[in-house]
């Protein structure tokens, strides 16, 4: 199997390095025959080549069986023009690889319940997946940076969805729900947006093919409340690109630590796997970043891209055991709880020890 | 002073009735000489007149010194065509009255800390205001319910902001911050949206006039996280219509109970005051809804629309005392805490007793 490794910026470098070490160990154990091609993207690529997503990076990703992505971005590139900012790399990869769906599981490890901002009794048992549409909506609609209208400068962005786009993501949500607790919550703003009304009508029509799955609709503002008030009510949440961006980040922190949340972006060809946290330039290079989100993303890669279930299970179990023995990076460390504070490398070592 | 009262749908009826009783009592005490004109809006108006916002309702509001609004909406009107849905009433009032800003204070009463889904140590001391732009953005941009493009049906909505629109709301946020802790957090999605880039540049330029106020920028996904993780970091949050809708609801539940959160929508003419919760058709007419959000909205009306500070203070103090003596409607009642569960009427009676 060919794995494309895109470390990106900031802590992206150190966390993907650890995840690759874990992949190598699991490869040695299960004989997967993995090979790696590492390429630049984001601000790092911009600095070297003047573009955040070199053609060669995209080509290597396309030719691979799975992409392991770190993180991109940083205030260093704040003054760069919009079309060349680090974020364009991830948006370009999503579009270039046709990654129409982002899956973010939020499951709370018992060992980390105390780390959620929510009360323990609200968080215990949370087990949901957000299925976010990833290459449509206002992210990729037509936009205008500046124009004059009636003597004033204005800018605009177009939100839009077509029936086939909505059907594709909704179908994935229904299929995902079938493998879980058979409940889909579709989130929109149909009381205000035309796009949401088309979304709702399309999801509702498709639901007829999935009579065994329960479908509810929630307005996005209500969903933002419900995630905080009663997150255990959710199984699969399906929503558009922008609402998904907001809600999945909210759901992630509620789950305890964004440092160990993985995500899978899947499409028609190669899939991409990345932790949900950012590039954290403030702590980059210090060896204190949490590598678990990336290691768990590598596990998702094993499972969803390579269909190596046993290898994926082994990595996830090793992470659970490292946490169970009390190993904690700074972001998930709480003093006086008997845990040991470790750095990026030691955390990965702890995972490796259990492989 | 002329007050327009718009009960709307569902529990809107019973809660505005109690708020008017409180206004009458405070009038008797402070000699404010208030008169009331009650009008229909929402689904109730649609049922009677075939439109959710009769011209007469808007005219009465325009001719008043302040509008007290209950809530609109209900599944009963789900099949009504978009342009005639109950929600059009509140959107129409906002536009018709030029209510460009929605102010939502989130302050956590000590007595209600236990009611927040967040851990007490995270919630204690939260005192923020969300300043949401209310008559622009994707809510009022051009939209298309259905069109054929390349053989597929699609719908679209246009997000847009002009420099003057952003300046107006940002100015209000800076002025509001000056009366508080002098900190403004502007929320956008400038790494993706052109509109957000114009927003950010405009707010940043305006900040030069407010050098005594500290300005930060946050992406909306990050803000959704920060509100859950460390809500005490915020003083004034300023954002566009759609992000404001989502974030203010999230902030509200974090504050403990949406049942007692008021809001003020202000503009160039008459201002409007409404609780942030909805019409809750499931409990309408049962006399169990929490009237405090509406009563506190009436207090905001006294303060911001009529500039009757003393009367406003008296209402707010009476609400605090009713809560302090343990009176609780069902939504904020927790068993075995020594509190008394009361209905809508008794809760208002408790407030009146302290006036
Ligand atoms: C970096 C940014 C463009 C991106 C997004 O908004 O999609 C990020 O927030 C995410 O969720 O992966
Ligand atoms: C009812 C609806 C149109 C409205 C909105 O989205 O603005 C509501 O959610 C609010 O926040 O007042």
UniProtKB/TrEMBL annotation, chains A, B:
Site annotation Important for catalysis: residues: 139, 189
Name assigned to this protein: 3-isopropylmalate dehydrogenase
Pfam family, one: Iso_dh
UniProt similarity note: Belongs to the isocitrate and isopropylmalate dehydrogenases family. LeuB type 1 subfamily.
GO biological process, one term: L-leucine biosynthetic process
Residue span, Isopropylmalate dehydrogenase-like domain: 2-351
Function: Catalyzes the oxidation of 3-carboxy-2-hydroxy-4-methylpentanoate (3-isopropylmalate) to 3-carboxy-4-methyl-2-oxopentanoate. The product decarboxylates to 4-methyl-2 oxopentanoate.
Subcellular location: Cytoplasm
Pathway: Amino-acid biosynthesis; L-leucine biosynthesis; L-leucine from 3-methyl-2-oxobutanoate: step 3/4
Residues the record lists as binding substrate: 94, 104, 132, 221
Co-factor binding comment: Binds 1 Mg(2+) or Mn(2+) ion per subunit.
């Amino acid at each position: 199997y060919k794995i494309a490794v895109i470390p990106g910026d900031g802590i992206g470098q150190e966390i993907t390095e650890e995840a690759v070490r874990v992949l190598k160990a699991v490869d040695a154990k299960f004989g997967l025959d993995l090979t790696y091609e590492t390429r630049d993207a984001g601000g790092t690529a911009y600095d070297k080549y003047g573009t955040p997503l070199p053609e060669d990076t995209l080509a290597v990703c396309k030719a691979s069986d799975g992409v392991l992505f770190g993180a991109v971005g940083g205030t260093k590139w704040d003054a760069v023009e919009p079309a060349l900012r680090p974020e364009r790399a991830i948006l370009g990869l999503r579009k270039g690889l046709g990654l129409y769906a982002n899956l973010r599981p939020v499951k709370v490890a018992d060992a980390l319940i105390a780390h959620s901002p929510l009360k323990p009794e609200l968080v215990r048992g949370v087990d949901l997946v957000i299925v976010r549409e990833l290459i449509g909506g206002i992210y990729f609609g037509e936009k205008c940076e500046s124009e004059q209208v009636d003597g004033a400068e204005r800018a605009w962005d177009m939100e839009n969805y077509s029936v086939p786009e909505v059907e594709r993501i909704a179908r994935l949500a229904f299929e995902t729900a079938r493998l879980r607790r058979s409940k889909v919550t579709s989130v929109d703003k149909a009381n205000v947006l035309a796009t949401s009304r088309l979304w709702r009508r399309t999801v509702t029509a498709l639901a007829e093919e999935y009579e065994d799955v329960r479908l509810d609709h929630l307005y996005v503002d209500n969903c933002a409340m419900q995630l905080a008030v009663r997150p255990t009510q959710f199984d699969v949440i399906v929503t558009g690109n922008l609402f998904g961006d907001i809600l999945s980040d909210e759901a992630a922190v509620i789950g305890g630590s964004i440092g160990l949340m993985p995500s899978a972006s899947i499409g028609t060809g190669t899939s991409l796997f990345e932790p949900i946290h950012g590039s954290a330039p403030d702590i980059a290079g210090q060896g204190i970043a949490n590598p678990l989100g990336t290691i768990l993303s590598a596990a998702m890669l094993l499972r969803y891209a390579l269909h190596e279930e046993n290898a994926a299970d082994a990595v996830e179990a090793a992470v659970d055991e490292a946490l169970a023995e009390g190993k904690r990076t700074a972001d998930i460390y709480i003093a006086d709880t008997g845990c040991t504070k470790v750095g990026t490398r030691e955390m990965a070592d702890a995972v490796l020890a259990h492989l």
